[in-house]
Amino acid sequence: MSVFRKLLGVFLAALLLGGALKVGGDLKAGPEIQGALKPEAVHREAAEEIVDRLDLHYRRLKFDDDLSARVLEQYLKDLDPNRLYFTRQDIDDFQVYRDQLDDQLGDGELEAGYTIFNRFQTRLEARLTEILADIEAGFDDWSFDGEEDVLVDRGEADWAADEAALDAIWRRQLKNAVLSMRLNGTEDEAIQERLTNRYESQLNRVRQNTAEDVFQTYMNALAQSFDPHTNYFTPHNSENFDISMSRSLEGIGAVLQYEDGYTKVVRLVPGGPAAKHGQLKPADRIVAVAQGDDDMVNVIGMRLDEVVDMIRGPKDSEVRLEVIPAGSASEHDTRTIAITRNKVVLEEQAAKKEVIEFDHGGDTVKLGVIEIPAFYMDFNAFHRGDPNYTSTTRDVAELLVELRKENVDGLVIDLRNNGGGSLLEVNKLVSLFINRGPTVQVREAGGRVSVENDQYPGMLYAGPMAVLVNRYSASASEIFAGAMQDYGRALIVGDQTYGKGTVQTLLDLNHGKLKMTNAKFYRVSGSSNQNLGIVPDVNMPSLIDKEEVGESSLPNAMPWDEIKPADYQRYQDLVPLLPALRERHDERIQGDPEFVYVEKLRGLLRRANERHELSLNAERRQAWQHDFDDQRLAIENTLRKHRGEEPIDKMEDLRKLEEQRALDPEANEEPMDEDPYLRETGHILADMVGLLREQRVAGNKDS
């Protein structure tokens, strides 16, 4: 048989079997998609383009079987994070794709993504329909006096063996929901209505899924397999780079992300409505949104761009959010927050100063404090050539001149809750405190390292200095704090910072956009800011849970590493002073009621959050709650006694008090001179000055 006739036979056989062949560069029929939702031609083209672009990602991951397995795991986690819909049989069926996704995606073939999603859609619709029937039947016959428990987090649990096993899991999930709300004082009728609204809303949303929704979910599973800051945006939401509501858009001033089916608060924008309101916190999860007095709309499982669109709105209008507070043991322990929308006012992000005085070992210390909520810059005015453009560095420079006239003994730069901002501004700010030298290093995906330098000789402030940070200090804040630590220009005090040390670029696609990590920041010492963040010289107690907040808490976060140091000269070596500074600091805070309060409350919350299971026995659950409330009140009243305030008798009264404070946070804002963290930072700085003086005296004697 001739070669031609052999090839013709192979070609015809392939057509009859419905396989895929590339002939003359054209893609023929691919694997058949099981289910109703199917991709369009534009999705296949976009998938190929995304794969091509990801070849240039900083991590340079190969499109191989290992990546295929990672994408499959990420996709299943995104679809069913708590393992409540798929069975073990479903997961076993999907294993056929474990080493195929890289090949399929490289060819623009989306069969696996759509087939898996269609199976999920079927399972989800059936399960939600069953749940609604169970809720409609009522809870009168349910027993809450047995030995049952429910897992708090099913993310790492085994997949259910079959539908019967899932039925048992869901029965416990619903019992937990009912018990949680009963213990919060909610009547059964209201519980039934609330749960019905939640699951009906989810069911309605599921039935509206489109081929575009599937594509976005699948491409994000691919993108997030590289790192958590690489994302795919459809044409509808491609303008929402970082899904930030902080720029020209009117909203609440919060940065959100999608995680395990929930819309999670990443950070609040300084000066924004949410930050000023005080009730919404990072790591809170938004489960429902309402416009003004309208009914709540459940947003669990909803696309992030849809949730963002619901939260945004005209200035002076009200949006209500139902949220699960950070660290809550149950998704049904929610609270409702009402926030009036507005634009973020740049002036309210501006740096501000204050001088505080305190007694340190019999001496009065005069401390200058500059609070920098964000690294801001008016880019439009800058590009217009306006010499008076708004700038962090310009504002801080003016404040430093004023503080020098007041003859302060030391300076604290307060970067708590500063989530970053302009790289140009942070480089210029570093230049105010060093004579000349590198400020930060940037390593590109190909390995090329560029060094940003201070171009201005001289220091505007050369005196003793500390930088106060916390877990919410990120990105540009970490560049500044890292530079001050490396140069020995300042002590870093507070909590380990966020650890955001990567750089992203936004790439246009034929269908949407891809935000991709293409570089990393490194300190002048060569250490990366990524994942590790800035480790303080002296630690302060904090209520922020590092397991919930920070780069290290994100899936597929890029690791810490280091490169060659830049050419720089330390001003002084503060490391030998640290043991003595830490010892004196520990002695002070052990007897300070403000820090004792933080330590005890942190311990109580940690023990509560470490519970892996919750009892479904009402008597035991109530006993645990009473014990927790008693401990919480005891901790609170010890601090109130120290402050000369009346004790609180009931948790209901404490909750009401906290709600009142949240309604008017500015009225309850602590003055700088009463802030225990600033005060203690001042003591640490004064200790440092004293130790340096002793060091110089000892050196003079030796000479």
Structural description of this entry:
With 703 residues, this protein is of the alpha+beta class. The chain is 41% helix and 16% strand. It contains 20 helices and 21 strands. Strands 5, 6, 7, 8, 9 and 10 form a six-stranded antiparallel beta sheet that branches. Strands 11-12-13-16-17-20 form a six-stranded mixed beta sheet, with helices on both faces. Strands 4, 14, 15, 18 and 19 form a five-stranded antiparallel beta sheet that branches. The longest helix is centred in the last third of the chain and has 27 residues, at 676-702. Mean pLDDT is 85; it is low at 1-28 and 240-249. Residues 242-312 form the PDZ domain. InterPro entries: ClpP/crotonase-like_dom_sf, PDZ, PDZ_sf, Peptidase_S41A, Tail-specific_protease, Tail_Prtase_C, TSP_N. Belongs to the peptidase S41A family. GO terms for molecular function: peptidase activity. This is Tail-specific protease prc.
Describe the protein's topology:
Layout: H1 3-17, E1 22-23, E2 26-27, H2 41-54, H3 65-79, H4 88-94, H5 101-106, H6 111-136, E3 149-151, H7 163-183, H8 188-206, H9 211-224, E4 231-233, E5 254-259, E6 262-268, H10 273-277, E7 285-291, E8 297-298, H11 304-311, E9 318-324, E10 335-340, E11 352-360, E12 363-371, H12 379-384, H13 392-405, E13 410-414, H14 423-431, E14 437-444, E15 449-454, E16 465-469, H15 476-487, E17 491-494, E18 502-508, E19 513-522, E20 538-539, H16 578-590, H17 593-609, E21 613-615, H18 618-643, H19 651-663, H20 676-702
Parallel strand pairs: 12-13, 13-16, 16-17, 17-20
Antiparallel strand pairs: 1-2, 3-21, 4-19, 5-6, 6-7, 7-8, 7-9, 9-10, 11-12, 14-15, 14-19, 18-19
Helix pairs in contact: 2-9, 3-9, 6-8, 7-8, 13-14, 14-15, 16-20, 17-18
InterPro entries: ClpP/crotonase-like_dom_sf, PDZ, PDZ_sf, Peptidase_S41A, Tail-specific_protease, Tail_Prtase_C, TSP_N
Pfam family, one: Peptidase_S41
Family: Belongs to the peptidase S41A family.
